[in-house]
Amino acid sequence: MEAIFALAIGVLTGSGVWLLLRPRTFQVIMGLALLSYAINLFIFAMGRLAIDRAPILDIGAPAIAEHYADPVPQALVLTAIVISFATTALLLVVILAARGLTGTDHVDGREGET
Amino acid sequence: MNDWLQHLPVVPVLAPLFAGAIMLLLPESRRSRAGLAVVAVLVQLATALSLAYFTSDAVLEIWPKGIGVYSIGKWPAPFGIVLVVDRLSALLLVLTATVALAALVYSLARWDRVGVNFHPLFQLLLMGMNGAFLTGDLFNLFVFVEVMLAASYGLLLHGSGASRVKAGLHYIIVNLVSSLLFLIGVALVYGIAGTLNMADLGPRVAQLPASERGLFDIGATILGLAFLIKAAAWPLNFWLPAAYSSAAAPVGAIFSLLTKVGVYAIFRVGALLSESGVHGPFGSDWLFAGGIATVAFGIVGMLAAQQLARLVAFSVIVSSGTLLASAGLNPAAMTAPALFYLVSSVLASGAFFMVTGMTERTRTHYFESSDQAPVSAVSYSAFGMDDAPDPLGVDDEVGIAIPAAMAFLGLTFVCCALLVAGLPPLSGFISKFAMLSAAVGIAPTAELPVQSWIFVGAMLMTGLAAIVSLTRIGMRLFWSVVGRTTPRLRVIEAAPVALLLLLCIGLTIAADPVMTYLQAAAQGLTAPQTYIDAVLSADPSAAVAGDAP
User: What ipTM did this prediction achieve?
Assistant: First the structure.
């Protein structure tokens, strides 16, 4: 499970960084979205991967930490998702405004030499 | 009485939050929103001043050690989120509220009407900054920084226009990436150390086994990188000049504080981790090298800048670099002078951004379009080639009465230039002198380390570069343009600038008591044990009954 999880984060990060370095604003915003997925998974993994462990207290189960997942990273992920979602939406608006004002979707507001 | 006072640390976060939220419900009419905004900022200023008073030595009943801990939701420290106010936080809160008041009053002249929702965004920006200065929790720091940045995106775009949108696009993307780095750092730190409380972090890291230390250092380094992007350290600062110089004048004034949030985070987290010997950008050598490189970049930028706004933006970079280098040189001795420099340079650059906004009205738009037709700075100023020969041959050097508005602008420009360059007699000089004497006085008997000399050289070079570039631009602005119109200044524009500059003069006169306070603040920062004890031993249930000793 760890290997698959790590591979998923790696692939998402790799594609995200590549897209982030592309010159078109649409590619950049897709790259940012992929990167934030990767980082959300990463934060989640920092609470250690485990199966069949709830992050909330179960009355029936014994109150030992081994029976529970760490709730803090899950709370952090929720916050991170909300924040990155909101800022990405904001960026989308700015990108549309830039497209309207400059007439191009190049990140510099004008076409490159190629 | 104490019951109410112990809720004081949360007011700087709640006041702008509620003010901003209520404003959104009010109609976009100018008067009600503006009135609420001024009241909210005044509340913040009063709160910040009283926090500074209660954390000082003058009053010992409320917080005996000068550190107030506010446990949100009554959860004790390592588990719940705490707000911590010590002298450094209180100082930065006062500074934020002061600059905010000036920028707000200035914006009432006309800037708040060139776009929608200026006032709510402004309040949320203040909420983010106040929260970032107060919080004692790493993830909460991230949240407050995000609140601040999200509001700053809106404020930067305030007024719209192609150049703002272009600069804003880069600014937003860079800051989103830095936020992602911030998250990676926070997650790694939590994954290894198992805590996000900044006070709890130091002792925990000291107990980590060596096998896990490497991973923690990586996390701390990534976290430091995110802070350095916010603090505009070279080579992570190419977004700053375009963004700051294209922002509206009052927005630029309050933005001069944004980079200081990153600097503050580096100071605070670096100090709390220092005893456990964490490497990465918090380690002195790297920070020093980065700071000096930032100063060098800022110097080159200042000399090359052709617009006053860009020049001021580069001076913000210089001041960030100076602070980082001084933190890297010798935290124990340099922190108090560095804090003095921080206060002085923030006030000066805040005033300077506003002066820039006023001078832009006096110019013909001859120099504006450097973006489309780049001309080297030399060809402007050397030999005075740009001065159109006077067709009528009128000798306009005699007999021109200087209008009061121009006299005011010229005077404030000179004051700002003196402050930025660090020349006597204003507070810029005192702060630089204090930093230089601390840098040279590290080893009074033994041989001075090379780093001290590099620092001294860099400081003197910034002064020289600032004088050269400001003299050039000042001559171009005030003397060389023939067909200049005299601007109409309004009192609510002139008063904030005058307020900030008068505060700088006040800093000069009251340098001794201010320095004493800053020394206490620096001591609280560089000897973090008191801070750690105060946070971890804070008992929220006991505090309600009044924790008088």
Answer: 0.92
A77 CB near a chain B CB, below 8 Å? no
**CATH architecture of residue range(s) A2-50+69-102:** Orthogonal Bundle (1.10)
Q: Strand B82-85 vs strand B68-71: parallel, antiparallel, or unpaired? A: antiparallel
| CA distance from start to end of chain A | 44
In a domain, B388, yes or no: no
- How many CB atoms are located within 10 Å of the residue A59 CB? 5
By the CB < 8 Å criterion, does A98 face chain B? yes
Q: Is B375 within a domain? A: no
- Span A10-35, mean pLDDT? 93
> Shortest Cα distance from A87 to chain B (angstroms)?
7
> Which of B139, B169, B177 is facing A95, going by the closest CB pair?
B169
Domain count, chain B: 1
Cα separation values, A4 from A1, A9, B183, Å: 5, 9, 22
Residue in B154, B165, B177 nearest the CB of A97: B165
Is the distance from CB of B253 to CB of B351 less than 8 angstroms?
Answer: yes
**Cα–Cα separations (whole angstroms), residue B119 to B42, B182, B400:** 14, 28, 41
**Quick check: is B379 in a domain?**
no
Does A76 contact B at CB distance below 8 Å? yes
Give the chain B residue whose CA is nearest to the CA of A88. Answer: B176
Put simply, the answer to whether B179 touches A76 (Cβ < 8 Å) is: no
pTM for this model (two decimals): 0.88
Instruction: Look at residue B387 and tell me if it is in a domain.
Output: no
Cite the beta strand spans of B12-158 per DSSP E.
68-71, 82-85
| Average pLDDT of span B182-188 | 92
CB contact under 8 A, B169 and A94: yes
